[in-house]
Amino acid sequence: MMSKKILVLAGDFVEDYELMVPFQCLLMLGHKVDVICPDKKAGEQIKTAIHDFEGDQTYTEKPGHNFTLNATFDEIDENDYDALVVPGGRAPEYIRLNQRVLEIVKNFNSKNKPIASICHGIQVLAAANIVEGRTCSCYPACAPDVNLNGGTWKDIGFEEALVDANLVTAAAWPAHPQWLAKFNELLK
């Protein structure tokens, strides 16, 4: 398979596994992966958070690692990329307020390029108005974001992934094997 250029939209307190694991896996497959964050430059760091499922009513949150960005938000041209990844965690709730983030997502979608969204990443897709008429998965607490924006949330559990046209969605990091495999298929 030919190497693809993949853009990742992240921010402080992005979910650690949902950034680190896909970043490393996609690199391992030979793709070029650039991670950006609004208002930050290549070489700067973002903090991550570890969300774990320990039997409580919702996930627990613990400090994660620092991740060094390898691209500058204000310098990227999304037209140079083949696919987009939007990990979850706390970051989506505030990066979705950035109009440039929404433009990037809309541009990928308008060109039918693969877009992967994990967990709370769906908040960015919903804010960009690209879930209407689509069936998506996400963390169950984000289901209203899908449904209120004209999409259909499907409960597929935490270890599965769902494809609807160019979108690959999953509820959380336990679905990494599934969504990464499905995303990689869309990249071919």
UniProtKB/TrEMBL annotation:
BP GO annotations: proteolysis
Keyword Plastid among record annotations: no
Superkingdom of the source species: Bacteria
UniProt xrefs under PROSITE patterns: PEPTIDASE_C56_PFPI (PS51276)
N-terminal signal peptide: none
GO molecular function: peptidase activity
Keywords from the UniProt entry: Hydrolase, Protease
Domain DJ-1/PfpI: 4-183
Pfam families: DJ-1_PfpI
Family: Belongs to the peptidase C56 family.
NCBIfam families per the UniProt record, alphabetical: PfpI (TIGR01382)
PANTHER family, A to Z: DJ-1 PROTEIN, DJ-1_THIJ_PFPI FAMILY PROTEIN
Protein name: Protease
